[in-house]
Amino acid sequence: MRIQMCRSHSDNNAVSETLGYILIFMIVVSCIAIILVIGNGVLDNAKSQNNFKGIEQGFMVVSSDLKQVALEGTPLKTTRIHMEGGSITANSSTNEIKVTYNGNTYNNKIGNITFRSSTSSGIIAIENGGLWEKYDITGSDIMVLKPRIFNISDTNTLVLNIIRLNTTGSSIGGSATVSITLQDQGTNVYPYSAPSPSDAEITLNTAYPQAWARFMEDNGAYISGLDDHSFTAKFTKISKLIIIEHNVGVTLN
């Protein structure tokens, strides 16, 4: 009887040790799995941020190229940008701008070059020579580089450099190196004056209305009709309005 009790006690100890080893093994495996999941998430987030920053730097170069082609007479510029995911799109049928002054109206579409991240809500765009960003679809947008719009108070002159991007519409996505070529397609100048200082109103449809409105306010405009897609900026006491329309062809390869 004592021998049987000893054997039973020994068997129970062996089972307990086995169960203990299994439990410890399961805990270790679970911890490793959690670490891998968290680690992969952190790594993916870091890759996404690095990709976004790389595109941002590339778009700053393209913005500089655009200034040279549109404003400084350079006939052609090409910049290569490498991206790890997301898409770059050139579109000429977006961003309508309307300017009214002393009974005159200018109405056109300026287009944009846009990068959209595939792993976050980050967006970068070149629009009318400015560089604009939005990190969250529901969040605020910011201006990285200013557009070429000047309110010269000494002479009550408003100068609008309007850079129209002309493209058939193209988009490149995934992991790729994208060549963005800009080509000068001519400039038109539209000077307007009034017998007495008058209001000049600019209405713009854009994905970055908050940042645009802040820029216009900093240049002396009064803002109205601000929503998620557009706004109106009114400049008062303008004696002369000069609209300089720069046409630039855009090709993505």
Describe the structure.
This protein has 253 residues and is α+β, with helices and mostly antiparallel strands. The protein is 32% helix and 49% strand. It contains two helices and twelve strands. The protein has helices at 2-71, 209-218, and strands at residues 76-91, 96-101, 104-109, 112-116, 123-127, 130-134, 141-145, 149-152, 157-166, 170-205, 222-224, 230-252. Strands 1, 2, 3, 4, 5, 6, 7, 8, 9, 10, 11 and 12 form a twelve-stranded mixed beta sheet that branches. The longest helix has 70 residues, at 2-71. The radius of gyration is 29 Å and the shape is elongated.
Describe this structure in a few short sentences.
This protein has two helices and twelve strands, in the order αββββββββββαββ. It has 253 residues and is of the alpha+beta class.
Can you write the helix and strand succession as a string? HEEEEEEEEEEHEE
Q: What can be said about the biggest beta sheet?
A: 12 strands, mixed
Helix content: 25-40%
pLDDT < 50 runs, ≥5 residues: none
Mean pLDDT, to the nearest integer, reads 86
User: How many extended strands?
Assistant: 12
**Approximate strand percentage:** over 45%
Rounded to the nearest angstrom, the radius of gyration is: 29 Å
Structural class of the secondary elements?
alpha+beta
Distinct helical segment count: 2
Ends apart, CA distance between termini: 88 Å
Approximate shape: elongated
Layout of helices and strands:
Elements: H1 2-71, E1 76-91, E2 96-101, E3 104-109, E4 112-116, E5 123-127, E6 130-134, E7 141-145, E8 149-152, E9 157-166, E10 170-205, H2 209-218, E11 222-224, E12 230-252
Parallel strand pairs: 9-12
Antiparallel strand pairs: 1-4, 1-10, 2-3, 2-10, 4-5, 5-6, 6-7, 8-9, 10-12, 11-12
